[in-house]
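REQUEST FORM: STRUCTURE PREDICTION
Request ID: SP-0412
Submitted by: Lab K.M.
Chain count: 1
Length (residues): 214
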Amino acid sequence: MGDVRKDNNIGLLLKKLLKEKSLSMRKLSVQTGIDTATISRIINGKRNATPEHLRKFSDCLGIPIAELFKAAGFPIEEQSKQNSDIYMTVDSIQNILESSNLIDKGFTIEDVKKQLANYEQYVQTNEGKETIINNFEEKMQKVGSIGPFINQLRSMYEKFRLKKGTTREILLIGSALLYFIIPVDIIPDYIFPLGYIDDAIAVQIIISLLERGL
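STATUS: Completed
RESULT:
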């Protein structure tokens, strides 16, 4: 698990939230699926919380995951700065991921392209199409105005919904929409503030292909 962070305030925050919501560690364990011993060690500063722990705490306690990441001592920058630049270099993204110990695997543009290719196949199925139509608005509500690629996604969705474009264009657009909607990304969506960077890159890849008529 690595060295326990000395500047970890997650324990104090969790204690406060549990008190406010009249929850015991045992009840939190039941609701999150994290064993009581692990929760106790996190609260008492004897173990680091992982991003997955923080995601579950966020869902259960109704607190923005960004606050939990900051309290847990992850070296992240302000959301507005990170999300305003969807053209972050791959090296920059990788450096932050590695320094934060957020994911084990590396990040490459090729990974995003491979995932888009898989989704291009999926969008040709009725299930793929229904996934987009039934889940796009819900995902947009969760994301809010997290970055400039949101307007591009909305435009793509309208074209997909109204079938404005060639068959090839609709398939490409559908692959970007599925990448955005389905949470199994190269960089998981819950990782703050980088979770939607690869989604934005996926959108830019598709826009580039559409502009070149590929």
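NOTES: The two ends are 45 Å apart (CA to CA).
Reviewed by: T.R.
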